[in-house]
Write a structure and sequence with these properties.
Number of strands: 27
Shape: globular
Largest sheet: 9 strands, mixed
Oligomer: single chain
Bound molecules: NADP nicotinamide-adenine-dinucleotide phosphate
Number of domains: 3
Length: 601
């Protein structure tokens, strides 16, 4: 065995692994199939043995194996992010099947993690390595096609089996994820540039919720247009064509090409069609070998796998938004948070002559009051204003006539029985009571700005780096009731929902903290400034506010050096409610907004 070979661990025994990548590893002089990872030991053993590999185990066993240099991941799309991140964090290079990232945020996180760990990450779009595309590029570069005008690509096949991962929305199936990456990538490869904007429609299957038809128009610089389609439930198509001012080139079979298949390319020019035959080639092996060469080159490598992955993820993200919002999306909108921001302004101080702060006797309530940042603030304690009592609210509002409300009253303690009724009564109904009063005041011509202090607990708490547009899937009853409050607040027109997590650095009430639990907790005395800025702005919507992502142990030991490390399992053992493993927040929107607000003071 060649000691120079890159040793691969393989996660998942998918069809593409069995038919494509594992035969490629068997035939490669640069890669070696070293260990098989499977959820089922018997299956792992069977696959490993079939390819003369003597090691198998769980996915975790593979990542722990010190002899392994690189991981090939062909798990269902929804698991790519989790296992790619774990593999990268374990210091392994990764080839992950397409789409490596099913959101742009996931792509960014993976690329950041690869760079941080000094390892390579390649999106497994093997088709691009087939020599047939080099032939098309030759036509383009030699000028035989003239100036390029239009690209058209389509990947389509019969409706997959309803029981397959392709038809499972929880596993990230659907034609948009499974097939669209191919024609989209081909257009980038042929035009040798990035699109400026996209328009996309995605049709979903009502039964499974997965995409079954997607059509996309990509506008490239210089007026060049690409059309890309992907379909579940049609006659087989695996093709693209490129139209130039002088000729047109059509691919007989562009994407899924068996290694023993001879390929035909058709060149239409001068009213004749020339057939070009391309001998069989194993594009999996060509991709694998290219990756191994670059891994060995290390810092000398000049290939931009990671930037390429991000560019692709950015286009697909724009396409999803385009389909959802039924509009053309500029690719620059995806990365440029400033463009996503409405024009945010600081309103004159006198706009808010009277501010009611609910939960005034609570931790955050006291921090806001002691900051002295907001003048004319009325901060009733629970006994002075019980938000579960609409009549008390009405009287309080009639007396105070507030211009704004910062709503920080809540039943926060999670240790209370998960179904504790006071949590629903206060966090949902209490918030709705306040909203109702604000609406009534508006009917009487008095406009009140509503700032709602929500929590990072509205997110699922597993992947971390949550952005405001991520799905809300609260992991315990507290998060659920705070989300209920958010829904009430969203019925208003002048509101801001602040999703945050804070702690008091001078009062850390535990002796141990987990090294594998992450969040973006912010010191409590840093939050009032952000709240005051947001209150005085014209921003309406939801915003995350927090600090840099850190483990709880790393965060707390900064001010409590005596704290001892422990694990998530230890923290959560015996609790009657769930906690988040990674509730960290993407706070790019807040950073950009803060800059804007500071600029226009
Ligand atoms: N602690 C965190 O890390 C965190 C993270 C994200 C978001 N938040 C949110 O931030 C806000 C403040 O949290 P905190 O840590 O300051 O909580 P806290 O110390 O428990 O304060 C909550 C306040 O709400 C009051 N309250 C409870 N039920 C009420 C009712 N029915 N009517 C009026 N007031 C009522 C409490 O008064 P009594 O004590 O007298 O009942 C207390 O003053 C909450 O909205 C919370 O959901 C907290």
């Amino acid at each position: 065995m060649n000691p120079q070979k890159i040793k691969f661990g393989v996660l998942g025994s998918s069809r593409v692994a069995l038919k494509g990548m594992l035969p490629a590893m068997r035939d490669s002089d640069l890669a070696e199939f070293f260990m098989m990872g499977s959820r089922h030991p018997e299956k792992g053993k069977e696959v490993a043995t079939q390819f003369n590999c003597t090691n198998w185990g769980s996915y975790e066993d593979v990542l722990k194996n010190k002899d392994i240099d690189a991981i090939y991941i062909s798990l269902p799309n929804a698991l790519h992010e989790e296992w790619t991140l774990k593999a990268l964090e374990a210091g392994k290079h990764v080839i992950c099947e397409k789409p490596t990232a099913i959101s742009y945020a996931a792509g960014k996180k993976m690329v950041e993690t690869a760079r941080k760990n000094n390892v390579r990450l390649l999106e497994g779009l093997m088709f691009r390595y087939h020599p047939q595309h080099a032939k098309v590029k030759e036509f383009v570069e030699s000028g035989s096609l003239g100036d390029l005008v239009r690209f058209e690509g389509c990947f389509a096949y019969a409706m997959p089996d309803r029981a397959s991962s392709a038809m499972s929305s929880t596993l990230g199936g659907g034609t948009f994820n499974d097939q669209m990456p191919y024609p989209v990538y081909s257009s980038r490869m042929i035009f040798k540039s990035e699109p400026e904007s996209v328009l996309c429609t995605i049709e979903t299957d009502p039964e499974s919720g997965v995409s079954i038809k997607s059509n996309m128009m990509l506008a490239y610089p210089g007026g060049r247009i690409a059309f890309a389609s992907s379909i579940f439930g049609s006659y087989y198509q695996s093709t693209y064509s490129v139209l130039g001012t002088k000729a047109n080139v059509r691919m007989g079979r562009a994407y899924a090409v068996p290694r023993d298949m001879e390929i035909k390319i058709f060149l239409d020019a001068d009213d004749k069609t020339e057939e070009i035959v391309i001998p069989p080639a194993d594009h999996f092996r060509l991709m694998l070998d290219d990756f191994c060469v670059e891994v060995v080159k290390g810092s000398e490598s000049t290939k931009h796998y990671e930037d390429d992955l991000l560019a692709q993820a950015r286009i697909l993200e724009a396409a999803r938004i385009s389909s959802r919002e039924r509009r053309v999306i500029k690719i620059s909108e995806i990365d440029d948070v400033k463009n996503k921001l409405p024009h945010v302004l600081m309103l004159p101080k006198e706009t808010f002559k009277k501010v009611i702060l609910t939960g005034g006797s609570g931790n955050l309530g006291r921090a806001i009051t002691r900051s002295g940042l907001l003048k004319n603030i009325v901060a009733p304690s629970h006994s002075e204003l019980d938000i579960t009592k609409p009549e008390e609210i009405r009287k309080f509002f009639e007396r105070e006539k507030p211009d704004a409300i910062i709503h920080a009253a809540a039943v926060v303690k999670m240790a209370q029985a998960d179904k504790d009724a006071s949590r629903v009564e206060t966090n949902i109904i209490g918030t709705a009571n306040l909203v109702h009063e604000v609406m009534k005041m508006k009917e009487n011509g008095h406009n009140i700005r509503f700032i709602y202090i929500s929590t990072d607990g509205v997110y699922e708490g597993t992947k971390g780096n949550y952005s405001e547009s991520d799905e809300t899937v609260p992991y315990n009853n507290y998060g659920l009731t705070k989300l209920g409050g958010e829904y009430a607040v969203r019925t208003l027109s002048n509101f801001c929902i602040i999703r945050t997590s804070f702690f008091d650095p001078n009062h850390i009430p535990f002796d141990t903290a987990a090294t594998d639990m992450y969040s973006s907790k912010i010191p409590i005395d840093e939050l009032p400034e952000a709240i005051a800025k947001i209150l005085q702005s014209n921003f309406s919507g939801t915003i995350n506010i927090g600090d840099e992502r850190k483990s709880h142990y790393d965060k707390y030991k900064e001010t409590k050096p005596s704290i001892k490390p422990c694990t998530f399992e230890e923290v959560t053992r015996g609790l009657n409610f769930n906690m988040a493993r990674d509730a960290s927040l993407d706070v790019t929107l807040w950073k950009a907004m803060k800059r804007q607000l500071e600029d226009n003071v």
